[in-house]
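U., I forgot to send this yesterday:
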Amino acid sequence: MEKQFEEIYDQVFDLIDNGRTAEAMSIAQKLVDSNMSNEAAWFAYACAKKAWGDMALAVKGFEQSVAINKEYVPGYIGLSWCYGEKGDSDLALKSAQKALEIAPNNTSAMDCVVRSIFDLEGIDSAIDKCSGYVNISDGDIGLKNLLGNLYIRKALMYVVDVPDDFKDPGCDTTPGFISFEDIQDARECCNKAKSLLTPDCKEDLETAENILKACDEDCELAPCHKTIYTIFNAIIVFLFYTLITLIWGAPLGIIAAIFTIKADKFPIYMYNYVWCTGSDDPLKYVSDSFYSNHEVLKSMADGAKEGWESSGGFGDSIGGNLLKDQFWYFKARIQFYKRLLKGKKNK
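Result:
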């Protein structure tokens, strides 16, 4: 009889794995009818109902399994999964914790705890808990993949969709960043994820690579003005330094002219930032991050699209007044010196 039970029990899960849930439910019902006091029969029944999408009967089945055997760990794990899918994160956490009380080394229960904490307390708490479980479980592959996925999710929190062309609000958008600090944090998360994920986690690994690519691209420099206009202002700078010092300032003027051209180029994340905040000048960039408040960022980005519809784009409002332009380039040079010194200091 026991051998026959095991065969039917295994058949239920084979059918579920093959997507034949209607047949699985039929066989599971017969299994329960002839084994009403067997927790494993109720577990199979609940799994079949869950696969079918009947969460109410699935919960009742798992509840019946632990009512028969209060030490039945799979039943508590099944309840945790069901409650989690229904959005009852508190109940999901309690069920998973109950499973861990009975079987402290059960990695499936640990998985459920982490997912419940993610829903209840957020990404950072979930990462901390999962990291601890990875250590306790001696690097369980499933938990390492879960931790890698959590790091990917955290990295995505730093990503903002920005236009491919700031002068065309109707263009396609590309994932980008609005601060260097966000880029650093996203890089760190993605590199940690890559060290944890196994090759079969293709989607997460691909996401990590795409985020890292976006990090590199947003650190590239792009000019604010047209090259000919910047060269014109660089010549003005050279003449100014030369004339006020009666030729002896020519070397200084050459250096200032060169740095004027260099200072007109800013990292792309600065353009992303000032676009998102509705500005038109990369010099208005400040070190900041909005990843903790998506709704504010989204409303700002949507507003920026409307603003750019009537705007000429970065730098177009900066021009036509020689004195004001020279003052802008002076500030740009100062900011360039700061970035240059900071970069050398970090190296």
